[in-house]
Amino acid sequence: MDLDGQIKLGHLLLNDRKCRVCGETKNLIDGFYRTRKDRGAVASSYSYECKECTIRRIIGNKRKQTLFSDWNYPDW
Q: 50, exposed or middle or buried, with CB in 10 Å at 0-12, 13-18, 19+?
């Protein structure tokens, strides 16, 4: 079996990835969240949206915390 020919250095080392939202190229491990826990550290188990863009999206989509905004006095 020729393992050296089958395994290349690029498969062992994780590469950088370009964020789909902001377009910046960041390190795959430090800059992106993992989406699949069951697989090893392969590039396909990381998201395509960087951590900063994910945090901005979550904070922007949070529902406003106003009390009784949807509540109306009952009309009996």
A: buried
The pTM of this model reads 0.61
Mean pLDDT rounded to a whole number for the chain: 76
Contact 56, 22 (CB under 8 A): no
| 3-class DSSP state of 75 | coil
Using an 8 Å Cβ cutoff, are 26 and 17 in contact?
yes
> Among 60, 63, 42, 44, which Cα is nearest to 52's?
60
pLDDT recorded at residue 34: 87
Length of the chain: 76
